[in-house]
Amino acid sequence: MSLLGLLLLLLIAAICGGIGQAIAGYSLGGCFVSIVVGFIGALIGSWLASELGLAAIFPVTIEGHTIPVIWAAIGSAIFAVIIGLVTRGRSRY
What pLDDT does 93 receive? Predict the structure, then answer.
């Protein structure tokens, strides 16, 4: 994979993670965290779509790697809600 392809995948993951966090109403952190949330959301969303027998909505393919953008955003929102529920009860000192 080329550097440009990797940067494009990171950008798409960051956008999907940011959208997912906005839908969930809970921000986990900055840009790097949005990238991680986007990749985890893509995994969760793809798994959920395959389990329900649904097609990939708005898939973006870059150098052979496909990210279903809508499912990644939905998976990111699910992941952000779960993390928000787990960490909301904890207080930082």
Answer: 46
Which amino acid, 92?
R
Which alpha helices (DSSP H) does the chain contain, by range?
Answer: 3-24, 31-52, 69-88
- Where is pLDDT greater, at 25 or 70? 70
Task: Give the separation between CA 36 and CA 46, rounded to whole angstroms.
Answer: 15
For residue 70, tell me if it sits in a domain: yes
Residue 78 covered by a domain? yes
Range of the domain at 56: 3-84
Residue pair 42/10 in contact (Cβ under 8 Å)? The answer is no
Residues making up the chain, counted from first to last: 93
